[in-house]
Amino acid sequence: MGHTATTPPTLATLILLAALSSLPLNMFLPSLANMVQDFRTDYALMNLSVSGYLGVTAVLQVIIGPLSDRYGRRPVLLACLATFAVASLGCAVATDIWTFLGFRILQGAVISGWVLSLATIRDTAPAQTAAGLIAYVSMAMSVAPMLGPMFGGVLDAFFGWRSSFLVLAAAGTAGLLLCWFDLGETNRVRSGTFARQLLAYPALFRSGRFWGYATCIAFSRAAFYAFLSGVPLVARTALDLPVAELGLYMGTITAGFFLGAFLSGRYARRFSLSTMMVCGRVAACAGLCLGLVLFSAGIVNEVTVFGATLFVGLGNGLTIPSGDAGVLSVRPELAGSSSGLSGALTVGTGAIVALITGVILSEQNAVYELVGVMLVCSALGLASALVVQWLDQTPVPV
Description:
Mean pLDDT: 85
Oligomer: single chain
Order of helices and strands: HHHHHHHHHHHHHHHH
Helix content: over 70%
CATH superfamily of the largest domain: MFS general substrate transporter like domains
CATH class of the largest domain: Mainly Alpha
Number of domains: 2
CATH architecture of the largest domain: Up-down Bundle
């Protein structure tokens, strides 16, 4: 294929990879009803294309990270993107639900774009610089899921649901070519064997800093998963919002994240990782507490509900880039493994919190219960950030 990359990728390439890794999750969601009819199946089985996909990406992150530590970021990423492109084409031409779900599972390989973008940044930049760069990559992760369903809906309206997967196949192929020409190997300290790599894991698992960073990220994102799970009920019972308006208001939390990530990109180099994390958690908790106060005063409307949750997005944008940089910095030689393990913990925690949210929310008090769950998650994230800050002041490495 001609020239292959030998130098580290540009930031633009990493941003595009991050966006591509998040796009397949929900781009086709507007088409679910049409797909149910086309495959002559039921909605519950069709919904496995979402929940099953999330589960697969959680498992793959644990595998992809160590593979990249052993064999390098470049070959693992190229193999995953090729798998994703073929799987997307398979989804587009599938004639029955089981064939579709099989290829849909293989699509999960694209999560490598996120995991290995973070590891690549940490390979080439010190921790605080990495936090700033990760913030800009995270902005792409917030925008792509917001625009994906809109784009998918337009494609379905004009060309049918299969067109969304054809576009994803083309995007995967373009990503593969981009990485071939602009993603040189950045992992210069590869683990010699998997056995040697496994021997290094206990030091990572025993690290209080690693678990502090990882649990802070997991609980921060869990508040967002709770929001996604519970806000439709709040919109119907407390706000009486039409579906179209709900979609617009749901974008506020993503807008908050975008702003927080932008601020992280600007200021992460000036402050320690733990300071940025604590600031983000305080902002999230403060916004949610203010919301509960206003609700108690009888002021329950779109501004107070989505204004409170906007602070969760803002806080996550401030917290998560520094948390990701911290996870990757505990054992830089295991950056890929650390990124994968943290990502799997985040997805697993988010899935559990979303399930709990769906169980405990009631029509009578949905707004209090949803904001309460989000506050608990944000407070647990704050506790984790404070632990990291305390460990930073501990003279003995932990």
